[in-house]
Design goal:
This protein is an alpha/beta fold and 285 residues long. It contains twelve helices and five strands. A five-stranded mixed beta sheet has the order 3-2-1-4-5, with helices on both faces. The N and C termini lie far apart (54 Å).
Length: 285
């Protein structure tokens, strides 16, 4: 409006025009120009592309949260529009292959986490196994998550789906977290978790044993969500040449991206490590 008035009445002082419109001269000089807005739009698109390249499975809401953490004042509708225009919306497909063998004679345990209200770290651990396809074979990943923070506290990658696979993930978690007696360890009823050696190690650690019902993935939904994220944002995007390359890449994703950087909507769009740090500060205050 001011630009049009200045063009029509160049003889009128800028101060007078600003007073008529109800703005200050400082606002006029500091307002975004079309060139400035175009430059900011380009920077925003670059920022969105950078986030999506690092986290290919992010939808527009997580991208919006990541942008806000970087200082961008932007709403999710604008981010969605840009992602649609730039074809940056995630279009990866979910795949599922069962890895649970529950046809065994070992003991079975009830589900203890159904009605458990989570309010602290190392209250419930969720354990599960998934497969990773390599050019000539399959390999397997066992992981343990803290149900409260979603952090992967223990994991092991192996060529074999056996007791050693799950035990080594458990040992990693126990060494890193040193949980108190009463921790609930939840898993499916697969033989790798129900076998005597695994049960004995849990009992030594003072853990309470919980198991999901057979063929009911919803009773282990957090583990399913973790593996879906891992596959969509890491495994499906790469063609690992061999076991060593897969092991290195998966380890880096878990430790450096998933635990430390990836934003979780259930944690208020914080990564698990940051969420745990804030929880510790609140607990100590």
């Amino acid at each position: 409006m001011i630009e049009e008035a200045r063009a029509e009445h160049p003889e009128v002082p800028l101060k007078v025009l600003c007073e008529l419109v109800g703005v200050s001269r400082s606002w006029y000089y500091e307002r975004p120009t079309p060139e400035h807005r175009a430059r900011r739009d380009t920077q925003l698109r670059d920022a969105i592309e950078r986030i999506v390249l690092e986290f290919p499975g992010y939808g527009y809401r997580r991208v919006t949260a990541a942008l806000r953490r970087e200082g961008w004042a932007v709403n999710h509708k604008r981010v969605l529009r840009i992602m649609r225009e730039e074809s940056l919306l995630c279009q990866l497909k979910r795949r599922f292959v069962p890895t649970t063998d529950s046809a065994h004679t070992f003991g079975r345990y009830p589900n203890l986490i159904k009605d458990t209200e989570l309010d602290r770290l190392d209250q419930v651990w969720i354990s599960d196994i998934t497969y990773v396809r390599l050019p000539t074979t399959f390999c397997y990943l066992a992981a343990i998550l803290d149900a409260y923070s979603r952090k992967c506290v223990g994991w092991h990658f192996s060529r074999f789906i056996d007791t050693s696979l799950t035990l080594r993930a458990l040992e990693m978690a126990l060494a890193a977290r040193r949980p108190t007696v009463g921790l609930i360890h939840h898993s499916d009823q697969g033989v790798q978790y129900a076998c005597a050696e695994y049960m004995e190690r849990l009992e030594e650690a003072g853990a309470r044993i919980s198991m999901a019902a057979v063929a009911n993935p919803y009773e282990n939904a957090k583990a399913e969500s973790f593996f879906r994220t891992l596959k969509m944002e890491e495994i499906y995007l790469k063609d690992y040449r061999d076991f060593e390359e897969a092991h290195q890449n998966i380890g880096e994703f878990i430790e450096e991206l998933y635990n430390e950087k990836r934003l979780h909507s259930s944690l208020g769009y914080l990564p698990p490590v940051e969420f745990e740090s804030l929880h510790a500060l609140k607990a100590g205050s």
